[in-house]
Amino acid sequence: MGNLLANGVTLKNNLKRLCDTALDLTAYDSNDEDRFMTTEKRFFTSEEIRPLAQRSDLWGVWLILHCWGVIIAALVLFSFIPNIVTFALAFTVIGSRQLGLAILMHEAAHMAMFKTRALNEFVGEWLCGRPILADLYEYRSYHLKHHRYTQTEQDPDLKLSAAFPTTKASMQRKLIRDITGQTGFRQRGQQIMFAFKMAGEVEDAPSSQDLAQAFSGPVIGRAVIANAIIFVLMWAFGAWWWWFVFWALPLLTWFQLVLRVRNIAEHGVLEKGDDPLRNVRTTHAGPLMRLFLAPYYVNYHLEHHLVMHVPCHRLPKMHAQLLARGHGNKMQIAQSYWQVLRLAASKAEIPTST
To answer: Residue 314 sits in which domain range?
Structure first.
């Protein structure tokens, strides 16, 4: 009986994935661009969008090599100069590049990193998603709903922004939970329970879409394989404890912190509704912020929502074109992530009675 139930669950998941894949194939048919360009054509013509949306395999390779290269460079620096400063630098840089892997998985989910679907899915799954315990396919299914219903009641991401603005004390508690691993351990525990089909036994258990929203996923078998490979490589070139300290721990702590700040910047404290210039935010980021908080042009989020299949490296050009056409005063643009955090924590404290 147990085997029959397990096979039934597996069959159900496989059928769901096939259906999602069929929908995605329709959504990303390069010969049917007009299907998803109603909003975009208010700001760009089809002739302008087409060159912006051209994929480049060389760019895709560069982005992947850069992300993993930065991770390796941080470990090499620590191995040659092992001290508290290089340890802290490696820890935070790797946690931020784990966010970079999530962003590149997002790029692959939109079929924007490589020219072919097969390459987007292989790289997005094995070199981006699985190492951080994320599921490309489940993520894409959830994420397309976010694009379709941005900042409306049907937006699955609305609960990420609905809590803001909040008070400074509440914001501090959230960030402390992230950096101390409380958020990460809770989410990974839910992921493990879901993977072993125990989620139904727990009250308020997350759905597979909830897991995808947090860059985790309902299936962990392939993630275990990817992390076993990382563990072996780190042990071979460093020490047995490197995976625990330089991979698992940043994923549970620093990654959660920068992921929350990124989420707040993109949709926090913005108008509800379907105005594409008002329900999403672009945030200016200098070199330091791009290293630790906004890798791979993720700060150009408004532009991404206007034309979601434009590769990330062309988003700055889209931003410049929108400003040149006089849309700047209508766009939600933050001058820094610090400005966004101050805005998100601007709610007045309720005075306590004495």
So the answer is: 54-344
